[in-house]
Every structure is written in structure tokens, then in C-alpha cells.
Write a structure and sequence with these properties.
The chain is an alpha+beta fold. The protein folds into 2 domains: 131 residues, Sandwich (Immunoglobulin-like); 409 residues, no CATH class. Helices cover 49% and strands 11% of the residues. The chain has a 4-stranded mixed sheet with strand order 4-1-7-8, with no helix packed on it.
Length: 598
């Protein structure tokens, strides 16, 4: 009897497949990038509903996808292929879960799910079929990576081929000494004879310009869409993507530059009052630029009140710069050549700046107290989630916890209305990733960059000491991030979260920043293997490139209306094209020696 039931089920399935699948697939809708089509066939005698949730959405409530009527009816649904989906089929009558599965669907794929009774007619099973070839969504980025790698290799190999063809130039290159770099990011040092005296000009720290330019180039690329790939866009809530790396890198570089620049000015005899005037002016310009162009839309015109947003990227960078510059001006006199006969000699580059460290510790304590102790109406104290449908839908209006509550209390609706969690978590509350509490940890991140600058000055011309100190700091911060996050995305004491600028996010990005700066310092300034090209060009004109790409990003030739939206090819080309244009503009301005400074 069991064999007869199995044969009957198979025959029924084959007849239904032959009669309906071909006609239905012929009328399948056109899919865009990161989409797949799933057709559900219901053989059961009662109606069912299909629900889904994304595995990237932490403890999210299942959402309704489609209802499928009874007795050999079908229904289709277009689903996202960005993340792995957990799906289940429930009975409409009593909400009984009939079957469930977890699967990562592929771009432009066509899938069929058969909902039918098992051979004994007691249990329900779901059978999956792949009906059509899907696109390899990662092929465009693979081709682009290979192209960029070959281009970079040609630029590296070309000078060697050139010198080999011209023996005189090759011999001259051997005789010439490698240029040396000092630790100030000001001017080049090259001995110049003037009578019997010798003048020494200081050369810019190439690794810092390369680091800044690299961060800015990645920022331009992700702001132009990053080819439409989810990992080049900000994480929905917890976790890290490529887009989440660039902002803290920028803040870290600001801290390092503050120490190097202001120390150089202090050595030249510039007074504190003059420094304070310069700091205040630069901060005011950054805040004004941020407030004006972030409220700009090509559709609504400049200073559109419909786009009004008080917090912003340049506003945060400007305020962070102001606090860090104050710390350096009021208590950051250069300290080098200290005696090593104290017990704290191995950490004297920290101990000698204890007032600044005390300030930072107090600021971080303030962040922790507000985040975990401030009562938020109708929300659990210390809540760090996205709200919406997350956390089993228990706290739908608690997006960001204390951070979101403070910003909504201060700014009302004049803040970011489309946070990264809105689509996945179905949130309704505005939340600004450049809010008040996050700015506190932005200052902490910048102070880690200041520590890198102090190491460069304190251990001047001691490259081994500098690199070892960078690696020690990277290790300490990396271990801290691992402990705070428990090496998980959502289950840690303090998850890594760019929207909140959580403490674990700061320590993780501090670790990566020290590692990247150490690598660039070793390659460019110590060994001289690489001059930092092409990243030094946007790195030396960062304000112009950042403001320019933000204002002109909507216009040709930097972008255009895409025609082929079925895959990532055109979007990736557009993102790379716009980024390359700004690098080229920065290079031409570098050749003309034009640098926009504030």
C-alpha cells in the first residue's frame, strides 16, 4: 500500500508539472539584480501561506510572502538574494507549520517549491527544484578585480622596463639615494646649500596621505553605489561591511594629522591663541559645508528645507576635529628623548599624556552610562537593537535605544529618516548614524589616531619601535573587540555596530587602522617600495574630492541613468568610472600644485 501511495504521488506531481509549469514560466516577470523568482505549487486540499525572514535580521518576526490556494493552485514571489532566507509554510486554518527550510538563493534564478503530502498522506513535504540558470552575481567584481590588479602590476613593472631600456637612466637610478621622510606631514626635507648653512625641509609623511587617499577612494566608490553589492553598502544593523570601514579610518587619520600638524606649528613658535583661532575657523567651515551641502538635492535646489538634517558626516568630522585639536593645543606639547629610568618607561608615550587620557576615559564612561543606564520610555534599559520586527517584535519603536532617544529628543524630525535598518527591520522611527552619542565614540576613535601620531613623534627615526608600538596597539584593541563582541555579530556584550558607533566598533576599527597604517608606513616611508600612488593624490585634496563627489555625483559624466538593471555589470562600471574620474581630477590638481585647504 505504501508503494502504491508513493507512485500515485509521483504521477500526480509529474502531470501537474507538465501541465502548468511551462506556461507559467513563459509569463515569469523580469528580474532585476539581487532578485530571484520562486513559484509555489500547492497540492494540499487547503490554502497555505509562505513566510520568510532574513538570517541577517536578528530574531526577526517572520513576514508574509505569499498565499497559495488549495488543490493544485500556484503563486509566485520575487525574493531578495542578498542574504540567506529562512522560510516556512503554514496552514491558513490553524497556523500549523507544515514545512520549513533555509536557503541562499541566487541572482536571477528561477525556483519551484512543491507543497504536497508525503506518500503515507500523513505529513506535508516541500520539494525544491531549480528551473533555470542563475547569474553569477560575483563575476563582474571578479573581472573588475583582475583588471585593476593587472593595471596596478603594469604601473609597477613599467618603470623597471623603462630603466632597463635606457641604461643611463638605470645607472643613475642606482647611484641616486632613496629619499628619506621625516615624521611631519608638512613639507619635504632635502638639504639645500645656502652659503655655508644647510636648510632642511621636512617631507610629508607619504603613508598618511596614502592612507587618507585610500579611505577617501573607497568612500567615493561606496557612495556611488559600490556596484550594487550589499557588502559595499552599510550593514543593516550589527556587523561590518566595506562601507563601514571608511568613516572611522577618516576619523583616525584626523587624529594623527592633528598631532603632526599642530606639533609642527608649536615647534615653529605659533602661539596657542593663534592655534585656537585657526582651529575654530576650520571647524566653522566644516560645519557650514556639512550643513549646507548635506541638505542639498538636485531636485529641490540648494538649502532645501525638505532635506533638512542637523547631524551629518562633515558636522561630526568638524566637531571631532575641534575636540581633538583642543586636546592637542592645551596639553599636547611635544615630548621626545625622555629618560628611560622609570618603571613606566615602556609606556611613557601614554603616561606623559595622562591628562588627555583621563579626558577620553571620562568621555567613554559618559557614553557607557548614558547607553546602558538612561531610562527610555517603553524600551528596556540598555537596549542596543534596531527595533522594528527585530527581537521578536517586542520593541518596535526602540530603534537605537538611548542613542536614538537622545537624538529624537534633541532634533525631532530634523535627522536621518532612512536608516540602514529601515528596509530589513521594517523600522518606523528615524535614526541618525551621526548622532550625539556616536560622536563621543568618534572622538575616542580620533584619539587613537592621535596616539599613533604621538608614537611617530616620540619614537622619531626609530622605525622598529614605531612599527612594534603600532602592532601592540592593534593587538590590544583587537582582543578588546573580540571580548566585547564575543566574536559574533549579534550575541556579544556590545555588538560591533556602525550606526551606534559602539565601543566594540571603535576598538575593532582602531585595530584595523593601526594595522593598515603600519603596513603603509613600512612599505612607503621605511622601505620606499611604493610612493602611495594613486591614493596620495586624493589624499592631498581630500576636502575638494569629498565635497565635489557629493555635490556632482548625480550628474554626467560621474553617473547616468542605468539601462541594464538585471545584473551588477553596469552599476559596477558606473561606480568604478565615477571613482576613477575623481582620482584623475585629484592627480591633475596635484600636477598643477592646487590643494584646497581650510
Amino acid at each position: 500500500m505504501e508503494l502504491v501511495g508513493l507512485v500515485r504521488a509521483c504521477v500526480t506531481l509529474l502531470l501537474f508539472l507538465s501541465s502548468s509549469c511551462g506556461a507559467y514560466m513563459a509569463s515569469a516577470p523580469t528580474l532585476k539584480m539581487d532578485q530571484a523568482l520562486v513559484i509555489f505549487h500547492n497540492q494540499l486540499p487547503h490554502e497555505v501561506k509562505v513566510l520568510y525572514t532574513s538570517d541577517y535580521c536578528y530574531k526577526c518576526v517572520y513576514q508574509s510572502l505569499v498565499n497559495v490556494r488549495a488543490n493544485y493552485k500556484n503563486a509566485s514571489a520575487i525574493i531578495s538574494t542578498k542574504f540567506t532566507l529562512s522560510m516556512r509554510v503554514e496552514s491558513i486554518e490553524d497556523n500549523t507549520v507544515l514545512c520549513r527550510w533555509t536557503q541562499k538563493y541566487h541572482e536571477n534564478g528561477h525556483y519551484t517549491v512543491w507543497i504536497l503530502l508525503s506518500y503515507d498522506s500523513r505529513n506535508t513535504t516541500c520539494i525544491h527544484n531549480v528551473d533555470g540558470e542563475h547569474h553569477n552575481s560575483y563575476l563582474p567584481i571578479l573581472v573588475a578585480t583582475l583588471f585593476l590588479a593587472v593595471t596596478a602590476l603594469l604601473f609597477v613593472v613599467a618603470p623597471y622596463i623603462y630603466r632597463k631600456c635606457y641604461a643611463s637612466k638605470f645607472a643613475k637610478s642606482i647611484c641616486c639615494q632613496r629619499p628619506q621622510y621625516s615624521l611631519d606631514n608638512d613639507e619635504a626635507h632635502a638639504p639645500q646649500a645656502e652659503g655655508s648653512a644647510t636648510k632642511v625641509k621636512h617631507k610629508r609623511l607619504r603613508s598618511l596621505d596614502a592612507f587618507r587617499g585610500f579611505a577617501l577612494t573607497v568612500m567615493v566608490f561606496v557612495n556611488y553605489g559600490g556596484g550594487g553589492y550589499w557588502f559595499f553598502q552599510h550593514a543593516p544593523w550589527n556587523g561590518l561591511t566595506v562601507a563601514d570601514l571608511v568613516m572611522p579610518w577618516f576619523v583616525f587619520i584626523i587624529g594623527t594629522s592633528v598631532v603632526l600638524a599642530l606639533s609642527s606649528m608649536q615647534r615653529k613658535g605659533v602661539g596657542r591663541l593663534q592655534l585656537l583661532q585657526k582651529i575654530t575657523w576650520r571647524t566653522a567651515v566644516l560645519l557650514t559645508l556639512g550643513f549646507c551641502f548635506l541638505n542639498y538635492s538636485p531636485r529641490d535646489g540648494p538649502l532645501s528645507w525638505s532635506w533638512l538634517r542637523i547631524p551629518g558626516v562633515l558636522q561630526r568630522l568638524g566637531f571631532t576635529y575641534f575636540v581633538l585639536a583642543l586636546l592637542q593645543t592645551l596639553g599636547g606639547n611635544e615630548k621626545t628623548g625622555q629618560k628611560a629610568d622609570h618603571w613606566w618607561a615602556p609606556i611613557q608615550d601614554v603616561v606623559l599624556y595622562w591628562p588627555q587620557w583621563l579626558t577620553i576615559i571620562l568621555l567613554e564612561t559618559l557614553w557607557l552610562c548614558i547607553t546602558f543606564l538612561l531610562p527610555v520610555p517603553n524600551c528596556p534599559t540598555g537596549y542596543l537593537g534596531a527595533g522594528g520586527i527585530g527581537d521578536d517584535g517586542l520593541y518596535p519603536n526602540c530603534t537605537g535605544g538611548a542613542a536614538g532617544y537622545v537624538d529624537r529628543w534633541l532634533f525631532g524630525d530634523n535627522m536621518y529618516r532612512y536608516p540602514t535598518c529601515k528596509e530589513l527591520y521594517r523600522t518606523t522611527q528615524p535614526f541618525d548614524p551621526e548622532g550625539i552619542l556616536g560622536t563621543i565614540n568618534s572622538i575616542v576613535m580620533g584619539f587613537l589616531g592621535m596616539q599613533a601620531g604621538k608614537i611617530l613623534i616620540f619614537y622619531k627615526e626609530k622605525n622598529i619601535h614605531i612599527l612594534c608600538r603600532f602592532l601592540v596597539w592593534a593587538t590590544i584593541l583587537g582582543i578588546s573587540a573580540a571580548v566585547l563582541s564575543k566574536c559574533t555579530r549579534d550575541e556579544g556584550f556590545i555588538p560591533i555596530n556602525k550606526n551606534l558607533w559602539s565601543l566594540s566598533y571603535v576598538t575593532c576599527m582602531g585595530c584595523l587602522s593601526f594595522l593598515l597604517l603600519a603596513a603603509m608606513y613600512f612599505v612607503t616611508d621605511v622601505m620606499g617600495w611604493w610612493g602611495g600612488q594613486p591614493f596620495v593624490y586624493p589624499g592631498m585634496n581630500s576636502i575638494l574630492v569629498y565635497v565635489g563627489h557629493s555635490l556632482l555625483g548625480f550628474y554626467f559624466p560621474f553617473s547616468w541613468e542605468m539601462r541594464f538593471q538585471e545584473s551588477h555589470w553596469e552599476w559596477l562600471f558606473q561606480s568604478l568610472w565615477g571613482t576613477a574620474l575623481w582620482v584623475l581630477i585629484a592627480y591633475l590638481l596635484y600636477r598643477k600644485k592646487f590643494f584646497l585647504k581650510i
